[in-house]
């Protein structure tokens, strides 16, 4: 998928809905299937000091899922080699330890030249300062498929800032 700007103004501008991720269960998470719904996309890792944030992500999913929010965890081994497991090991870890019921992608690269196209697009939209610098970096995507806000790993999914951002796109 090309990540350059459209050649003409007639061409549709890119949005989050133009991307997909391999799902942890071997299927595909096609973001276009959620067109018109807000998304919370978070790069995750099982062996990170921020891993307890899975609880907060699950709480957001349970609280706002019926209102349209789609939460998607994106496992990545890019930071501190903190997601070394197989797809099956990651899925089991998330189910056993956090009872995750939101979408989980398969492990992908989220930084650098080999980053998944979604993350390349994100950086083209929010700039260098909005790139993931560690696990559990969060992007709130509005119903229009555009980035509404982003939050660093240090910001809990249950923080007032994240909740306000999620509620603003519902």
User: At the third CATH level, what is the topology name?
Assistant: Glutaredoxin
Radius of gyration: 15 Å
CATH class category name: Alpha Beta
Shape-level CATH architecture:
3-Layer(aba) Sandwich
Description:
The structure is a single chain. The protein is α/β, with parallel strands linked by helices and 170 residues long. The protein has a single domain (48-169), classed as Glutaredoxin (3-Layer(aba) Sandwich), CATH 3.40.30. The protein has helices at 53-64, 87-98, 117-126, 160-169; strands at 20-22, 28-30, 39-44, 70-75, 103-104, 138-141, 147-151. The protein has a five-stranded mixed β-sheet with strand order 5-4-3-6-7, with helices on both faces. Strands 1-2 form a two-stranded antiparallel ribbon. Strand 3 (39-44), helix 1 (53-64) and strand 4 (70-75) form a beta-alpha-beta unit. The chain is globular and about 35 Å long. The model is unreliable at 1-11 (pLDDT under 50).
Q: What is this entry, summarized?
A:
By secondary structure, the chain is α/β, with parallel strands linked by helices. It has helices spanning 53-64, 87-98, 117-126, 160-169; strands at 20-22, 28-30, 39-44, 70-75, 103-104, 138-141, 147-151. The chain has a single domain, classed as Glutaredoxin (3-Layer(aba) Sandwich), CATH 3.40.30.
């Amino acid at each position: 998928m090309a990540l350059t700007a459209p050649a003409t103004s007639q061409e549709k501008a890119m949005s989050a809905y133009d991307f997909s991720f391999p799902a942890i269960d071997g299927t595909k998470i096609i973001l276009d299937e959620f067109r018109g719904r807000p998304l919370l996309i978070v790069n995750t890792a099982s062996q990170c000091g921020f891993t307890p944030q899975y609880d907060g992500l699950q709480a957001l999913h349970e609280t706002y899922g019926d209102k349209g929010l789609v939460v998607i965890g994106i496992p990545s081994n890019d930071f501190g080699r903190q997601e070394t497991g197989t797809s099956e090991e990651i899925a089991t870890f998330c189910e056993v330890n956090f009872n995750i019921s939101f979408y989980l992608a398969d492990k992908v690269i989220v930084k650098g030249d080999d980053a998944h196209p979604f993350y390349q697009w994100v950086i083209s939209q929010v700039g260098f300062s909005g790139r993931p610098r560690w696990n559990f970096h969060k992007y709130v995507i509005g119903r229009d498929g555009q980035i509404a806000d982003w939050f660093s790993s240090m910001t809990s999914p249950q923080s007032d800032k994240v909740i306000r951002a999620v509620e603003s796109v519902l």
